[in-house]
Amino acid sequence: MSEATYRRIGEPRIGGIVCIGDHASNVVPEDIELGIPASLLDNHIAVDIGVEGVTGRLARRHGIAAHIATVSRLVCDLHRHEHETAVVPASSDGHVIAGNIGANIEARLERFHRPYHDALAAWLDETKPELILAMHSFTPELESKQEDRPWEVALLYNQDDRASRHAISQFEAEGLTVGDNQPYSGKQLNATMDRHAEAHGRAYLTIEIRQDLISDEAGQARWAALVANVAGRVAEAIK
Q1: What is the pTM of this model?
Q2: Which residues, at least 6 apart from 104, have a Cβ–Cβ distance to it below 8 Å?
């Protein structure tokens, strides 16, 4: 295992459901200086707030093993393609990431991005999941611009929407306001699932939960149970 790239939680069931958290960590290795206030590491630009708690509960309480990042997306964004400038962001939501300007991007890719995705690819080949959950969270609003974000949960997808269509209906049946490729579109932001799911014909759900709903343990427990329930029903529906 690479020293600051990923960790695993729970034991996967072969042919079962697994989850992935590309943005679950705000850790910055000691030898990397981002040049930003420490307070920003608790901000959405550094980590998907609540996702580590939700994925941990999915693994420990609901039998859905997890592969999650152990490095902040400000160090290397694991949910971006290698060629994208945002893979080592020089700015995010109006904040300049000074330490990334002129950074050795190839070194970051070799140290973080490639080990993470190589390990994930091997894990998925071994576990042969019937459904992959890619867990993310989104902010009620962006700092850099005003926009209406009324959704409580959203499903993102690129070409393969077979699982998402079922999940949208299931979450709506729970009385939730559900985004369909909102507040981001999986047509543009779906790098990990494009690579590890769509390219292999694997069914998946990219789930975005509004971060204020999972910012504490009670919310994380509630949403882990809800996601596990919906995922189980979706897995049955797409067999």
Answers
A1: 0.95
A2: none
